[in-house]
Amino acid sequence: MLESKSASSQPAGEDKQHASDQIPQLAATLKAAGDPLRLEILRLLAQDSYSVLELCHIFDLRQPALSHHLKVLSQAGLVSKRREGNNLFYRRSANSELLQQLFSGLDQLPLSTGRAAAVAQIAAERAEASRRFFADYGNRFREQQELIASYSVYGPQVAQLLKPGRHALEVGPGEGEFLEELASRFGTVTALDLSATMLERAQAFADEKGLQNIEFVCDDTRAAASRPESADCIVVNMVLHHTPDPAQIFHDLQKSLRAGGQLLITDLHDHAQDWARDACGDLWLGFAPQQLVEWAADAGLSKGRSVHSALRNGFQIQIQEFLKP
User: Fold this and answer.
1) What is the number of other CB atoms lying within 10 angstroms of the CB of residue 246?
2) CB 313 within 8 A of CB 148
3) Residue 4 confidence (pLDDT)
4) Element (H, E) at 32
5) How confident is the model at residue 126 (pLDDT cuts 50, 70, 90)?
6) Does 221 lie in the same domain as 107?
7) Is position 178 within any domain?
8) Quick check: is 176 in a domain?
9) What's the mean per-residue pLDDT of the chain?
10) Structure confidence at residue 280 (pLDDT)
11) In this predicted model, what pLDDT tens digit does every residue of 154-191 receive, in sequence order?
């Protein structure tokens, strides 16, 4: 019995010591979150990542005041930041069970009408910037594409990951090269693009190749979500860094996937080559692979296969497969 008490008392003591070590950290976290404005910021960052200037617009605050609140949240581990060229973008952290519980309750609270309208305006401005770029530079698309990664760099690798089926959807088909791969493996294909200019180029390519089983739709991914469980496979090649809300793309496309379907995402690793914004219309300077995994998991998708390759110009390409259970 004495041995039994001794064996059990040591772990208990260690547990108590471990818990007492966490108390100061817990107090700092709760103190940082214990402000109405900071809670609103945390609630907003559940939807997307935003730059400091975008947050100033949404909350109608001057930059020094907002930066103070972001610094407090960052020091407490409640938000993380990422540099995109000259801008800092903030997103919410959830690296502990405590934070997950805090955010779970917070996310049930609706945004105020004014905040929701400001968020919608930011999303519209991002979308318009991307739409304007492709309207202006649609005829120079291949030239812009070659600056970073040509289709030949990633197209064949994505094709190797395809699981043939009844229906496929490609978001942002560019000049249409990958539609040829999809048309030969699926009964029907939908090409979805927000840019009418680019969609016309993709359709011209399909006509030239005699591809008869493709539907062309000029819209965003909400159009895909409005067709629930319709696609066996969805392909998004080098498009995500042009979209105003990448996280929402995963939610929209998850709805469109059939059970067991695959989502293939090809995009850049995160990088610091800011010239890509003006030269190529990029809204985001690539993505950390784990960021895509987290967005997919939040949308109810599980991680599948992945391929990563480095290019001579300093960029890295990632191809990630996500599956709908």
Assistant:
1) 22
2) yes
3) 41
4) helix 2-33
5) confident
6) no
7) yes
8) yes
9) 86
10) 80
11) 999 999 999 999 999 999 999 999 999 999 999 999 99
Contact, 48 vs 68, CB < 8 A?
A: no
Same-domain check for residues 143 and 71: no
CA distances from 313 to 2, 262, 270 (A): 68, 30, 14
How is the beta sheet containing 257-268 ordered, strand by strand? 214-218, 186-193, 165-171, 231-237, 257-268, 316-323, 302-310
Report residue 154 as tokens.
């990633």
Given the structure tokens 């949404």, which residue do they identify? Answer: 58
Condensed to tens digits (0 to 9), the pLDDT of residues 259-279 reads 999 999 999 999 988 888 877
Write down the number of H helices and E strands in the chain.
Answer: 14, 10
Q: Would you say 57 and 103 are in contact if contact means Cβ atoms under 8 Å apart? A: no
Strand bridging mode 79-84 / 87-92: antiparallel
End-to-end CA distance of the chain: 50
Q: What's residue 143's pLDDT?
A: 65
Which of 48-57, 85-94, 202-211 is least confident? 85-94
| 101 or 40, which is more confident | 40
User: Is the Cα torsion angle 221, 145, 271, 122 positive or negative in sign?
Assistant: negative
Single-letter residue type at 42: L
* Residue position matching structure tokens 């070590």: 21
Please answer whether residues 316 and 271 qualify as being in contact, where contact means their C-beta atoms are separated by less than 8 angstroms.
Answer: yes
For residues 246, 252, 256, 261, the Cα torsion angle rounded to the nearest 10 degrees is 40
The answer to whether the beta carbons of residues 169 and 256 sit under 8 Å apart is: yes
Residues 183, 203: Cα–Cα separation, whole Å: 13
Q: What is the pTM of this model?
A: 0.73
Same domain, 245 and 173: yes
Which helix (H) or strand (E) is 259 found in, with range?
A: strand 257-268
What pLDDT is stored for residue 101 in this prediction?
73
For residue 215, the domain's CATH number is 3.40.50.150
Same domain, 104 and 161: no
- In single-letter form, the type of residue at position 210 comes to G
Domain of residue 33, CATH code: 1.10.10.10
For residues 59 and 121, what is the distance between their CA atoms, to the nearest angstrom?
13
Which residues fall within 8 angstroms of residue 281, CB to CB, at 6 or more apart? 129, 130, 133, 134, 137, 144, 242
Long-range residue pairs from 6-10, CB within 8 A, at least 24 positions apart, any chain: none
